[in-house]
Amino acid sequence: MRIEKQWKPSVARTNSRYRGVTEKIQYTNFLLEAVHDMTILCNIMTGNEKTGMLGHELGIENNYLSIFNGDRDPGMYNIFTASKLCKAEKKKPLPLPALDKWEVVNNCTVTKKGDGFLLKSPGLLDPCGIRTPLYVMPGQVLYIRLKLKNTAPVDSFKFGSVNLNQNEGALKSLSFSQSNDGFFVDYRLYCKHQETIFLNLFVHHLPSSLKAQEIEVLSFEAMYFNELDVATMPLNHQMKSHLNQSRETINFLKK
Amino acid sequence: MLPITTKNPNLYKGPGSSTEFNQLRNDIQTDLTNLFHVANKHESKIKENMDVILRENFFMQNRIEKLERKLSELQAETTAKELGTDSKMLRSFYHVEGMKDGDSKKPVNVDIVRGIVSPVPTKKHSKLSYRNDNGEYILPRSLNVAVIETNDTQPFAENSSERVYYSIDQTGLEKAVDGDKDSFWVRTSSFPENSGVTEVSAIMHIRLPMDIMNNVYINTMLLNPYPEYSMTILDVQYKGLGDQWHRMETYPVEKDAKGNEVPVPIEEAGKLFFSFPRREMTEIKIMFAQPYWFEHDNKRLFTYGFQDIKVEYREYSTEEAEFVSTYSLEGSTRRFGSVHEPTYEVPVGCPRDIEENVEHKLYYDADLTEEFSFGHEISAPIQTVYIKTILRKVGETVPFLKQMELPYSHKELDE
Questions:
Q1: Which residue of A has its CA nearest to B64?
Q2: I need a surface site. Which of A187, B3, B14, B248 has the fewest CB within 10 A?
Q3: Which helix (H) or strand (E) holds B35?
Q4: Exposure on the CB side of residue A191, measured as CA atoms within 13 A
Q5: ipTM of this complex > 0.90?
Q6: CATH number of A88-229
Q7: Å from A125 to nearest chain B CA?
Q8: Do A76 and B43 touch (CB under 8 A)?
Q9: DSSP 3-state assignment of B98?
Q10: Mean pLDDT per 10-residue interval, chain B, length 415 residues
């Protein structure tokens, strides 16, 4: 993000009438400052190629051309001209059972605690956790958000999928050396293939030392995710093409 | 801006006085300072305007992408379905193509920005801002607007299903209610990428300027969220002269699992128009959320705001208003076999029970000389029909239409 520039003049009101005559050096300074300010003003208005200053004139023109036909990049703005627009689709939850109905991996115990679940590992086998199958399609983005709480240190808590994208896997790893009283973590899974994957929550997965540990999942949310790469879409060359294409489709449907 | 520095008056007059010299210096200094002030103002305005356009542009892309996806689903559905002879034609009010006045003494108001047709309001009394003869917007001092915010990682308030709200910077909030469609109140809430925040919600609380209102009756509210097609409007409530909060009568509601009436979120809200029977209002609360965020510089940026919020009392004439829509099969080999009475859709936020307020009449000629009944078989080779729609205010209820559907059957011209 750019930081807004505030242009300031150099000239100062020096000839106070109670201060006596103006000295020669003050007169010279005033002239230099005035000339300097006028040059700066010219640069602000029309730019300066040498210093790479765009100027309002070119800035306005570039803004207009970038939006109208995309011939130039936007010139003057505070935000960004390309980004990723994201939305967690809360109305499209993943079809998953409650955590205590997930399949247990390596003797993990899952007990209901308040509105959440307590996941415990006896520390005998690794990885230890729970998993559930999910059928996914290419292009889908899955979003998982957890609220976690731990009363003792946790080493290598992981969640995600071990076999997403033909066993490539995607797991987010977290370790806590201190206790935490409920905090949110989230992760996105990008599906490239049509397949059945496992969603996993591991109390530990490849920890530095294998030992019994537990973690409380205060809330578990899993939903589809919408992600769109956006950049300035010019009206004339792109937006109108999209509209015309839609119009053609509607005409076809009306026949 | 005009410079105050004048040309040297002493060019042919010999030396100038020290007063003149000092005056010239001061004038140059004043002019230069003013020029810098103007340059700063321009720079900030150019950037602000571009920011507004860029954000709108991003959400327009999102809207286009969604519409294209829906259209291709529809295309797949239609291709799979066998086409019969029964069909429908759609009339929306986002344009006036194929639409003309009925009786010129009974005109309708077509709001192509919101795509709504209604009787013409004879007077509009704004309750928030006023426009003077110079076109400047004036806000009464006693108008009070405040916003509080929360997000979906905030803890729940004690004994409540609502999350804990926090106060935010209120700078520029007046731009949301100043009546000027070219000014925006925009706020960007920024969170770290790993914060887990997926939605930001807020409540805007408007206390109306009671001291300058000649009455507290209100029957119209316009909401122009910014960026358009991104925010979710969760509820709109008002307070009358008592202490009780009421939901705006025409805000859409549904029954929850326990049978309680709950507000229906208006997702990806465009420009909204609420019309309701006149009510005494002293305070208004608008609840809204922003589920979309931009990912930038390892941050989640939730941008929301309002281009304009208008609260008005509108007076409508009790006379009828009418318009004529043309439905045509010209350009195809088909003709109308029969035409059924049109159905209509009411915009979100407007009275739904308006059967008494809307009447349709069918004509086969552009001069509307003879009225025909709906549903009868048409034997003549007619490719164009004309529907006159009459809108009338009944009691406090004013009809607003968003779109009309004309069900019809068709035959081949040579049949």
A1: A242
A2: B14
A3: helix B18-80
A4: 21
A5: no
A6: 2.60.120.260
A7: 30
A8: yes
A9: coil
A10: 69 68 83 91 93 93 90 78 73 85 87 90 89 84 95 90 94 91 92 95 95 86 94 96 93 93 94 93 96 94 95 88 92 89 94 93 91 91 93 91 91 79
